[in-house]
């Protein structure tokens, strides 16, 4: 007889692993699916200093490993598989994967989101080594160093102002001659004595061996390039990229409601408009995308999935 899980969780970042822990601990038959590496974005983070209870020198991989251990201790199963189609109508949901069809009474969507990249040489190699996509996570590491911020929206300017609490100087590089951010935010940023601006420009390459040591900029109007290196006394600098995120919602684009940016719309209980289908973590509409909010989402989604499945048996 084909197995029908109480819940299948798609994605094994902090939201998915937290959901797996809570679901399995509630004695639900639980399967966590992941097509790529376990842990999501945090698996590439060298140090986690802002997750409550993090021990000294905690890393993304070490935190993920503990989450996996906890989920498995309570009986959650894990499978490496790529989901190719979702059939979410009806009481029993079907998850089509490259390893066969899977059945579940409830589904938690936790595929996350990925930062939009600059797509320049050196970016990939130096991510986590001076290149960051999260000021809340990493700004403190650049205390008294020079930082370059790429982007022109509300997030870029707000994060740049946050980074000035730590960095000695922040330069915002924008590809246009005017910001698309709210006027009030632009005005506040321009009044910040630690912030400078470079317009009509973008990164051509990021320079460094082991850590970011410089950046080459290109002026889009003149075509001229300029290499800016870190202060010799510092030896390194920071690069923060805020040019948007891409939610991993391709599988559900025509199945659940999304906002204009492609994020899944849920209620406070993580429920989508489809009964028995929940969303958790960076994939859903929310004001803060951090590990701590992802794990909270996962816990809520699992508890609500448990209530939904219990109600099916009544």
Automatic annotation (TrEMBL):
Enzyme Commission designation: 1.8.1.9
InterPro entries recorded: FAD/NAD-bd_sf, FAD/NAD-binding_dom, Ferredoxin-NADP_redctase_2, Thioredox_Rdtase
Catalytic activity: [thioredoxin]-dithiol + NADP(+) = [thioredoxin]-disulfide + NADPH + H(+)
Single annotated GO MF: thioredoxin-disulfide reductase (NADPH) activity
Gene3D superfamilies with a match to the protein in the record: FAD/NAD(P)-binding domain
Cofactors named for this entry: FAD
Pfam families associated with the record: Pyr_redox_2
UniProt keywords, alphabetically: FAD, Flavoprotein, Oxidoreductase, Redox-active center
Top class in the EC scheme: oxidoreductase
Domain FAD/NAD(P)-binding: from-to ranges: 5-298
Family to which this protein belongs: Belongs to the class-II pyridine nucleotide-disulfide oxidoreductase family.
Assembly and binders: Homodimer.
Protein name (record): Thioredoxin reductase
Organism: Fusibacter bizertensis
Gene: trxB
């Amino acid at each position: 007889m084909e197995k029908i899980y109480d819940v299948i969780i798609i994605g094994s970042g902090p939201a998915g692993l937290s959901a797996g822990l809570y679901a399995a601990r509630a004695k639900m038959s639980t399967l966590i699916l992941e097509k790529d590496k376990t842990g999501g974005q945090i698996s590439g983070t060298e140090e986690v200093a802002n997750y409550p209870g993090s021990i000294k020198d905690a890393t993304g991989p070490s935190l993920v490993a503990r989450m996996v251990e906890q989920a498995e201790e309570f009986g959650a199963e894990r499978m490496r598989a790529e989901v190719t189609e979702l059939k979410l109508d009806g009481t029993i949901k079907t998850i089509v994967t490259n390893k066969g069809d899977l059945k579940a009474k409830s589904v938690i969507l936790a595929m996350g989101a990925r930062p939009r990249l600059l797509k320049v040489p050196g970016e990939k190699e130096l991510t986590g080594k001076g290149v960051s996509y999260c000021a809340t996570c990493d700004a403190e590491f650049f205390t008294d160093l020079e930082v370059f911020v790429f982007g022109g929206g509300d997030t870029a300017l707000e994060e740049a102002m946050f980074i000035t609490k730590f960095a000695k100087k922040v330069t915002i590089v924008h590809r246009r001659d005017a910001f698309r951010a709210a006027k009030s935010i632009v005005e506040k940023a321009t009044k910040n004595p630690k912030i400078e601006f470079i317009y009509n420009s973008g990164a051509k390459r990021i320079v460094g061996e082991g850590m970011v040591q410089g950046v080459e900029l290109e002026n889009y109007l003149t075509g001229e390039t300029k290499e800016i290196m870190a202060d010799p006394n510092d030896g390194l600098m920071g690069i923060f990229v805020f040019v948007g995120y891409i939610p991993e919602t391709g599988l559900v684009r025509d199945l659940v409601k999304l906002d204009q940016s492609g994020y899944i719309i849920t209620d406070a209980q993580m429920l989508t408009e489809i009964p028995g289908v929940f969303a958790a973590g960076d994939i859903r509409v929310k004001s803060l995308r951090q590990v701590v909010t992802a794990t909270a989402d996962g816990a809520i989604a699992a508890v609500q999935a448990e209530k939904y499945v219990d109600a099916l048996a009544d």
